[in-house]
Amino acid sequence: MTEMLGSILLPPGLVLIIGAFLLPLVEGKLRAALVLTLPLLTLALVWLIPDGNHVQIAFLDYSLQPVNSTAEGRLFATIFSIMAFAGGLYALKTATLTELSAAFAYAGSAIGVTFAGDLITLFIFWEMMALGSTMVLWANTAANPKAYKASIRYLLVHLLGGVVLMSGIVAYVFETGSTAFTAMQADSVATWLILAGFLVNAGAPPLSAWIADAYPEASPSGMVFLSAFTTKTAVFVLLVGFAGTEILIYIGLYMVFYGIIYALLENDMRRILAYSIVNQVGFMVTAIGIGSEMALNGAAAHAFAHIIYKALLLMSAGSVLLMTSKRKCTELGGLFQSMPVTAINGIVGALAISAFPFTSGFVTKSLETSAAAYEGLVFVWFMLLAASAGVFLHAGIKFPWFVFFQKDSGMRPPDPAANMRWAMWLFSFLCIAIGVYPQALYSILPYAVDYQPYTVDHLVTQFQLLLFAGFAFFVLLPMMKRTLTISLDFDWFYRRFSKVVGDEFSVKTGKVFDRLEMQVRGGVTGFIQRLHRHHGPQGILARTWPSGAMVLWVAVMLVASLVLYYV
Amino acid sequence: MDNESNKHWLYRKKNLPTLWGIQIAILVLAVLPEFFVHHHPHFEQQGIGIDATWGFFAWYGFLTCTAMVVGAKLLGIFLKRKDTYYDD
What we know:
Chain A: It is a multi-pass membrane protein. Chain A is an all-alpha fold. Helices cover 72% and strands 2% of the residues of chain A.
């Protein structure tokens, strides 16, 4: 039976990728129907495929395994499919066809990665993801001219990551002779390169800036898609490939605080949320570094919950952008009065990302922090605790406060179209459903869960942590006053420094060229003058010589030969 | 807009003390359980028990957040640029 299934099995991600190419062929209601049914079809396929490796395709000397079903892969593929559905619903009326198709190809490739049993398949889908996501961003160029340059910078970062990853894969296959994608040790150049390639997509330092640089330039629906796949496939591959790699703990902690600090400085509401992606992925990367079963469950569950609440937050922010054409906190405020649905859903997302009790973040993030405690990692635990408070500060309160409350901007835009409201309600429902009934999510995690998030102690301490973090926000509100600024980041090096160096280089090389040109010109002129002197009308070799001189010279030569002959 | 009575009650100046009062009341409610709940230290074996002391999560949350805001403010002095900085 399984063998028979195996012979017709195809990678679930292909449904969305093929679908991406079908979307332009149909119009109107048929297209809408495809947008909504393809993700559900994918989800069904994800769950119909039994565990194990089902398809082997020979490729050169290697075998590709595009349908390798594992518990981790299924978990990520599930949330990716749900995300494609809700994102499609949200995007239905406003997204361009290019964006929709690109988003589906992007989502399908991400699902392709989660079912990749070998590094070559993984790499192919990895690069398709880079192309798909760039197209999502690029598709917004007509509406936002900044999107074009941002998409090119985005592509460059991901192609760089891809090159590093491919070098690693080539070296790894050369060393081990195996293409299988399994747990690895970061102990050779090959595996370090693979790890670095994965980390580029996770938004790890120093290349974290691409997230806040690129994502906010996408359309309202575009950023919802972008927030979900690239960073979370990176979490997936790190989880499978590098669980327990200690350096990830520190990389993750860096990302956690980087996200908070930059989000606190930020004025653009969608850049705040972009920085908070780095922050949240930091929690997952730290947990993967801890590497215990509980920590890995935490990372996987947190990725699942994060995709939902981050998409929800971005749907809310996207609705505000769509209805007001404004993104800056300095220009927003008071919108809860006319956009109650958007505000309520934004607040649910904000509570969930802050791990407020009875929301999804509470039951998933506490797995990670508890794992740090169980492993006796004192420093890590205290840091994660501070970071949890910091999340409430930058995403939990700052985003809703400055967008929906704060000082009244006087704008009274209505809530967005029905499909967008439904998408937000759906994800709000999931945020609370997972929070209230975590067993459903716990039951599909990679390892058995023996953890009860709802103890009196945990509830009390979490409420205290968050409420006093909120208190700090309002006490320090004068220091939080928004300014029309951005913050410098590592991207300064490739956006400014390299340009300055490039300009300087062209000035310097210009001077060298000038000097070289002068020398060459001088040489040529000198040559011509010499030529003129010797061969010109007055030149010694061009003069008409009198025949007397000729006779004299012949006589001299005759004498010379005579002398030579007889002497 | 300038007329106080036209504003939503959240924005009326005279309601500000009430809003602060509500917030303080919530905070007091949050620390009340400290009198009844006994916390278990996470790192007993390492000899660290600070996380089980009275109101630890409240002051730790407040202080770390203050530190992060002040830290961000200080970094901002060096990192902040006009938001048209990269526009050519």
